[in-house]
């Protein structure tokens, strides 16, 4: 990282380096270029500069006058910036030596590689592209191009790499049109807003030997026949189509060097693997119709896997012990299936490099990690909504790199081990809806990286809620270094004592739920310091901000290119989209990480709180839900409540409140309906009234 986000780069800093030939300024988020001495001619002071990479910044069209003087450049990379407007743009005519360009101009007849991906270009690509007959690479992906498929593509018979992913082309595409591309190695097509008809008409034997094929969201109902003639493929992505029938075992048999196979979100069934060991490194069969048991030799046949996703199917039975033979596996996602039985010990001992294990929503049982394991690299463990029993096993102690743990909605008993607070640095900790008891370890929340905590009983789950209520007792621990917590759910335990003043320092909190405990004394006035009392806008939540994404950055480059295209870095985070349940408007709602950006809520209901409601509570001006019901609060509703203009749900019922309702509060549309009928009674009687905003 060279510069500050959005700041311009003073290019005169590089003028002393007259011999400079290659300059990489990627991922610096520069907002522009400046030179107080040479002005736009700044790049002309580097006469030997051949390669300039400005990708992944915040640059816009203002840099074009500077680039006009970079006449020595042979490679210019501007991908993933903020270039916009009509295409092509003026400003590149003087760079006659260019051979590889992220943007384009039609006069460069010797141009071999053209990459304008990940910008916001709109309209249609220029027809003059037809004159770039020496093009080997054309990447128009991730823009706003529209209209028919560019006719000039048929003139580019030397193409080896063609990507039209993620645009708005309205195209009926036939694979017969690929006949002219005898050198094609990489083909990437997808549709965002329309359906692509890709049926074969007639039979033909392709001359090309394709290595990478991506046909995402193409409305395919069958796997293209020409794939049966390909024997050297490295990546196949046919996700989000309408493929049906059994798993295409022949793809693996025909392509022993295949590394990535993504068939996600189709209608495939019946998984049968080849008889020989395969070198596949990434397999995604999620969201299909598989109902099989995994074969006993599953892990042996696919022993080279780095990532596997079988989630959202109906796989059943026990996991085979052969999964322990996947020695290089980094990420496993078997969530949302019907797997059952104990987890094989070979999984814990053989998969040493495992970083992500997601087994949520199955029927696994037995104790979680009862004995020591070899999972020293494990960072994310999701085993929620299963049938695990017993205490939290000591086997987890070896996995000190754990940052994300979800054990909620099981049948766990016993206490939370003290070592979970002493030896781990948590980001997300979810243990709700079990039968845990005892005190919360004092050090459990002593982490600057902690963002989401749920130890509540959450008895709204429709699976024997009577045996799933945590019974954690004692007082709420001191939150010493946990200012980053966004969600804290301790509802439905046996916590006692006053609300600790340290909670007021939770400057990033979005939802704080302490309901259904035995907390007493008064409400701390300093709760107004919570994030939804702040005047400035809060940043968007990112529960994975401190977690290393589980994707391979070194899975191979499948195409020789000046621009080093197609290094496979599949971002298979396996759906780490956490949700929490929070009671508002007399019902439980589920909020995922996106919805939490707009939700601020405080629930102190069903405790033993007393005294008056502090005037400062009304300073929670962005609160959407506030529930103080079923306590022993007295006095009047503070006038400051009239400042909570975003409030959607307010429950002060079953207290000892009296006096007038602050008038502006009754005027807000979301509050008027149920407050108005009670206004006169509430004003003078002092009864225990239900004041609920729906």
Automatic annotation (TrEMBL):
SUPFAM superfamilies: L domain-like, RNI-like. Its main location: membrane. Pfam families: LRR_1, LRR_6, LRR_8. Keywords: Glycoprotein, Leucine-rich repeat, Membrane, Receptor, Repeat, Signal, Transmembrane, Transmembrane helix. It is found in: Membrane. InterPro entries: Leu-rich_rpt, Leu-rich_rpt_typical-subtyp, LRR_dom_sf, RLP_Defense_Trigger. Belongs to the RLP family. This is Leucine-rich repeat-containing N-terminal plant-type domain-containing protein.
């Amino acid at each position: 990282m060279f510069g500050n986000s959005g700041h311009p780069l003073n290019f005169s800093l590089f003028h002393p380096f007259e011999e400079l030939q290659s300059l990489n300024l990627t991922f610096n988020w520069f907002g522009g270029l400046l030179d107080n001495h040479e002005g736009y001619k700044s790049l002309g002071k580097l006469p030997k500069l051949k390669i300039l990479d400005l990708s992944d910044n915040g640059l816009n069209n203002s840099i074009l006058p500077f680039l006009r003087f970079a006449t020595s450049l042979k490679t210019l990379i501007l991908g993933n910036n903020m270039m916009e407007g009509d295409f092509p743009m003026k400003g590149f005519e003087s760079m006659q030596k260019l051979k590889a360009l992220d943007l384009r101009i039609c006069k460069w007849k010797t141009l071999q590689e053209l990459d304008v991906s990940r910008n916001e270009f709109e309209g249609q690509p220029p027809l003059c592209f037809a004159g770039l007959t020496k093009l080997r690479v054309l990447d128009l992906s991730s823009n706003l191009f529209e209209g028919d498929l560019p006719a000039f593509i048929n003139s580019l018979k030397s193409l080896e790499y063609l990507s039209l992913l993620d645009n708005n082309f309205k195209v009926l595409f036939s694979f017969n049109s690929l006949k002219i591309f005898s050198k094609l190695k990489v083909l990437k097509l997808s549709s965002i807003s329309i359906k692509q008809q890709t049926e074969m008409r007639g039979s033909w034997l392709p001359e090309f030997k394709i290595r990478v094929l991506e046909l995402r969201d193409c409305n395919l109902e069958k796997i293209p026949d020409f794939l049966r003639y390909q024997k050297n493929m490295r990546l196949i992505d046919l996700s989000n189509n309408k493929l049906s029938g059994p798993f295409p075992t022949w793809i693996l048999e025909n392509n022993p060097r295949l590394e990535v196979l993504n068939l996600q979100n189709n209608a495939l069934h019946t998984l049968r693997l080849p008889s020989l060991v395969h070198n596949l490194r990434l397999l995604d069969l999620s969201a299909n119709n598989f109902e099989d048991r995994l074969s006993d030799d599953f892990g042996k046949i696919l022993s080279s896997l780095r990532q596997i996703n079988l989630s959202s199917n109906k796989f059943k039975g026990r996991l085979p012990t052969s999964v322990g033979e996947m020695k290089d596996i980094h990420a496993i996602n078997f969530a949302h299936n019907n797997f059952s039985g104990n987890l094989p010990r070979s999984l814990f001992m053989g998969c040493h490099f495992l970083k992500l294990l997601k087994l949520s929503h199955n029927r696994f049982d037995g104790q979680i990690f009862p004995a020591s394991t070899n999972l020293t690299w494990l960072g994310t463990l999701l085993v929620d909504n299963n049938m695990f029993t017993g205490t939290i096993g000591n086997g987890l102690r070896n996995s000190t790199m754990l940052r994300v743990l979800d054990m909620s909605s099981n049948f766990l008993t016993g206490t939370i081990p003290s070592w979970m607070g002493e030896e781990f640095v948590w980001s997300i900790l979810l243990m709700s809806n079990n039968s845990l008891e005892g005190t919360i370890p004092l050090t459990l929340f002593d982490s600057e990286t902690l963002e989401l905590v749920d130890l509540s009983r959450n008895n709204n789950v429709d699976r024997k809620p009577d045996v799933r209520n945590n019974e954690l007792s004692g007082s709420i621990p001191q939150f010493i270094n946990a200012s980053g917590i966004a969600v804290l759910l301790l509802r439905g335990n046996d916590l006692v004592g006053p609300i600790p003043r340290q909670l007021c320092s939770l400057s990033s909190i979005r939802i704080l739920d302490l309901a259904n405990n035995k907390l007493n004394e008064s409400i701390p006035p300093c709760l107004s310091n919570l994030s939804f009392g702040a005047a400035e806008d809060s940043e968007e939540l990112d529960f994975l901000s401190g977690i290393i994404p589980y994707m391979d950055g070194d899975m191979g480059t499948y195409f020789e290119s000046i621009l080093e295209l197609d290094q496979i870095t599949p971002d298979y985070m396996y759906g780490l989209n956490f949700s929490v349940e929070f009671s508002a408007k007399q019902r439980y709602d589920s909020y995922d990480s996106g919805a939490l950006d707009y939700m601020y809520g405080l629930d102190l209901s069903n405790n033993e709180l007393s005294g008056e409601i502090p005037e400062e509570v009304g300073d929670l001006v962005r609160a959407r839900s506030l529930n103080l019901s079923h306590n022993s609060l007295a006095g009047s509703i503070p006038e400051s409540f009239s400042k909570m203009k975003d409030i959607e749900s307010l429950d002060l019922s079953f207290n000892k409140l009296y006096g007038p309702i602050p008038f502006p509060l009754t005027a807000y549309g979301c509050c008027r309906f149920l407050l108005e009928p009670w206004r006169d009674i509430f004003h003078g009687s002092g009864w225990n009234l239900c004041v609920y905003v729906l």
